[in-house]
Write a structure and sequence with these properties.
2 helices, elongated, mainly alpha, single chain
């Protein structure tokens, strides 16, 4: 496989990963308000924690992906 073909496959893989991350996070955001309100009936503190983790999940996934890419590029 040529280097150019490898770059194309790498770009395509990155695009699929980005699409999966954005769609997954979009689904989380769609259900998050209803989930937080439901949990808030039982415990407002727990609802705040769940909401915070839900929002932070996007950044956590991106951070983990960047760490994985950096580690993969080194080897």
């Amino acid at each position: 496989m040529s280097e150019n073909q490898s770059d194309k496959n790498s770009n395509r893989s990155a695009a699929y990963a980005a699409l999966a991350i954005v769609l997954g996070f979009g689904l989380v955001l769609l259900g998050l308000p209803k989930l937080v309100l439901w949990i808030g009936d039982y415990s407002p503190v727990l609802a705040a924690i769940v909401g915070t983790v839900g929002i932070m999940s996007f950044f956590i996934v991106l951070w983990l992906r960047a760490r994985h890419q950096k580690r993969r590029d080194r080897s």
